Amino acid sequence: MASSNTRQRKLARAKVDRQMVRRADQERRSRQLKAVFGGLFALVLVGVLGAWSLGAFDAKPTDTVAETCAWSPLDLAGNPSLKDAGKPATSGMPTSGTSAMTVAFAGGNVVAELDRTAAPCGAASLKYLADSGFYNDTKCHALTHAEGNFALACGDPSGTGNGGAAYSWWMENPPATAEEPSAAPSTTTSAAAAATPSPAAATAVRYPAGTVAMTPNLNGSQFVIFYQDSTTETAYSIVGKVTGSGLDVIKKIAQAGTTANEAGEDIKPKQDVVVKTLTVVDNTAPASPSTPASPSAPASPAASGAATTPKPSASTAS
């Protein structure tokens, strides 16, 4: 009987020993897992802290795109002849190569090559407005024809010569003799600003026949096409030149003569000259120089809302 009790006690002790061994083994494995997870956590924490110290979690700066063209608003309230046509994008426009501008008149088409290298803003503005149909069915408001100045002026839907798209921009690709201005663009309207062309050349400059240029003060949409070699003291932003036989179309328009406009100037076309459509499409050919004139320092547009119609100068083109 005693031996049976002794045997049971041994069996019970052995069972307890096995349980203790299993418990110790479980605790050892638990400690190992905790050590592994603790090590991994420490590594992750070190990595996060290192990345934080290097600025990985700092707010990323927003990429800024440099502006190619800054469009200055004109005073719509001060000049009811202006038209709100929105504004082109300030960046992303082509700055090399050429575009083809086609102006459709009743007597035929005038095709001009726009120089996007020398005048990217002028070319971009013309395309922006052309794509919106801004020029379609608008009248050209002036035709100069005396004292060496021969130009057709278009791009003002009001037909007064004082209107156009309600924005302007810094002058680009002016004649080499253009006078450098001393003031930045103004967005206010004043009688003095309306009466004074800005900018103006100190001496007369020559525009070869076929020169296409944007009108000072209202270079958002108004443009001129010189159909003969011309001389004037007005400094225009030269944007391109007529190609092919387009000048013959304008010369035929000029033959119809002019009459006095509301200001008493003999520059209003006697017969309505209507731009049926104006389109601008990109070319793949490299840009060619618009005129023999080389660009000078940029001049600022006036935001007075008064256009500068090409005036005959005292000089006569040779």
Primary descriptors:
two-stranded antiparallel ribbon, 2 domains, Cyclophilin, alpha+beta, disordered C terminus
Question: What average pLDDT do the residues reach?
Answer: 79
Radius of gyration, whole Å: 38 Å
Order of helices and strands: HEEEEHEEEEEHEEEEEHEEEE
Strand order within the widest sheet?
6-7-12-11-14-4-3-18
Low-confidence stretches: 178-202, 286-306, 312-318
Major pleated sheet: 8 strands, antiparallel
What would you call the structural class? alpha+beta
CATH-assigned fold name of the largest domain: Cyclophilin
Number of continuous helical runs: 4
How much helix, percentage-wise, in residues? 10-25%
Kindly, what is the distance between the CA atoms of the first and last residues, rounded to a whole number of angstroms?
146 Å
Please give a quick description of this structure.
25% of the residues lie in helices and 25% in strands. With 318 residues, the protein is of the alpha+beta class. It is rod-shaped and about 145 Å long.
